[in-house]
């Protein structure tokens, strides 16, 4: 007679899931807001939306994303407490682009085997990033998928909701010729382009424990550098008296030009100058190791620019000071001009819109400082 088949023998450990929840409770408790109702463990996270009744025309904004193949680096290094910053950054910073304040977030972790300590480490990173972004982590799900994922494999995803007054929505309709394009520095690769990066590293035969002098740390440590989470700082910038931000762009998959074009109106050209910044060493290293063409690098990686803001020229100094006080490097990257009558640099690609958005035009010229 065969042995009885149980859920545990099929590869799902319910008790391990319960232990993971107990381990993450303290972290999640810190990632909250006064509007959160109930606690961890409910079937749904609840958020008191009565404050929206005081708004004239509240507009909800939502976003969802994952971390991509960067999780492979975390798994290889067996370090899981930073990947949450990548997840939160990819989700809540998209919401901020339209001027919305992210309110709450949920997460989803799928794994081949629930290791309570590992799951708790992942969630601790998510909670810490939510706390930094002033977003409540109101719930989530950990799913065990034996047979679909290897025991030590996992993937993470998340979704968030925010709100903005209709009159305060940022976007292309506010952008004007003469606006300055202000770059906000990234912390490194963030969470895009890792399929390219991992292919280059593997082709070169580099190991993650290799110390790289230009990085000042190992290759693995550099690749696992957490995404900079801009949400709270950008919201404070937008709300600063005397600073009128017209549009924001989150530089993620597709690179700088394509993402900027998405938030420009038709009929304008943003000309960006590479000579205004030197990308961190990781970008040139990946390019040289894989002989990756510059155009491919720029379409895939952020090249050191994690966010872009457009605002009137006379407000740039104040905005730069405000961002610098928050530890975010910022510099003038270029300017917006009328497309009609502009003289784009000959032989240099002009990007018109991206991801289904028929927006403005962007041209990136010059070379980075040697």
Automatic annotation (TrEMBL):
Stretches assigned to the PurM-like C-terminal domain: 176-338
SUPFAM superfamilies xrefs: PurM C-terminal domain-like (SSF56042), PurM N-terminal domain-like (SSF55326)
Record field: catalytic activity: 2-formamido-N(1)-(5-O-phospho-beta-D-ribosyl)acetamidine + ATP = 5-amino-1-(5-phospho-beta-D-ribosyl)imidazole + ADP + phosphate + H(+)
Pathway where it operates: Purine metabolism; IMP biosynthesis via de novo pathway; 5-amino-1-(5-phospho-D-ribosyl)imidazole from N(2)-formyl-N(1)-(5-phospho-D-ribosyl)glycinamide: step 2/2
Broadest EC class assigned to this enzyme: ligase
Enzyme Commission designation: 6.3.3.1
PurM-like N-terminal domain span: 57-164
Compartment list: Cytoplasm
Keywords: ATP-binding, Cytoplasm, Ligase, Nucleotide-binding, Purine biosynthesis
InterPro entries, alphabetized: PurM-like_C_dom (IPR010918), PurM-like_C_sf (IPR036676), PurM-like_N (IPR016188), PurM-like_N_sf (IPR036921), PurM_cligase (IPR004733)
The keyword Nucleotide-binding is assigned to this record: yes
Main location: cytoplasm
Family: Belongs to the AIR synthase family.
UniProt-listed NCBIfam families: purM
Name the record gives this protein: Phosphoribosylformylglycinamidine cyclo-ligase
Origin species: Pedococcus ginsenosidimutans
Gene this protein is translated from: purM
């Amino acid at each position: 007679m065969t042995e009885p088949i149980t859920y545990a023998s099929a590869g799902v450990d319910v008790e391990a899931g319960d232990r993971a929840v107990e381990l993450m409770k303290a972290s999640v408790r810190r990632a909250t807001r006064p509007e959160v109702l109930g606690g961890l463990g409910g079937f749904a996270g609840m958020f008191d939306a009565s404050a929206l009744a005081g708004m004239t025309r509240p507009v909800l904004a939502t976003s969802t994303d994952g971390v991509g193949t960067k999780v492979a680096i975390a798994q290889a290094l067996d370090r899981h407490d930073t990947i949450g910053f990548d997840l939160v950054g990819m989700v809540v910073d998209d919401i901020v682009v339209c001027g919305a304040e992210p309110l709450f977030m949920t997460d989803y972790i799928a794994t081949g085997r629930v290791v309570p300590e590992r799951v708790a480490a992942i969630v601790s990173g998510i909670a810490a990033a939510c706390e930094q972004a002033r977003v409540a982590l109101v719930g989530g799900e950990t799913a065990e998928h034996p047979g679909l994922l290897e025991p030590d494999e996992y993937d993470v995803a998340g979704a968030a909701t925010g709100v903005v007054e209709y009159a305060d929505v940022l976007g292309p309709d506010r952008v004007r010729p003469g606006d300055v394009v202000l770059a906000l520095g990234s912390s490194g690769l963030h969470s895009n382009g890792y399929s390219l990066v991992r292919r280059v590293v593997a082709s070169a035969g580099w190991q993650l424990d290799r110390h790289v002098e230009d990085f000042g740390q190992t290759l693995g440590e550099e690749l696992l550098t957490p995404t900079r989470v801009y949400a709270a700082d950008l919201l404070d910038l937008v709300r600063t008296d005397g600073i009128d931000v017209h549009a924001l762009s989150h530089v993620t998959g597709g690179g700088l030009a394509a993402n900027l074009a998405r938030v420009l109106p038709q009929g304008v050209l943003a000309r960006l100058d590479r000579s205004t910044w030197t990308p961190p060493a990781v970008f040139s290293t990946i390019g040289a190791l894989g002989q990756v063409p510059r155009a491919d690098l720029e379409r895939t990686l952020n090249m050191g620019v994690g966010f872009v803001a457009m605002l009137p020229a006379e407000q740039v100094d104040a905005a730069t000071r405000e961002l610098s006080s928050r530890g975010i490097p910022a510099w003038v990257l270029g300017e917006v001009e009328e497309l009609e009558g502009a003289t784009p640099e000959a032989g240099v690609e002009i990007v018109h819109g991206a991801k289904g958005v028929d927006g403005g035009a962007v041209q990136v010229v010059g070379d980075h400082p040697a």
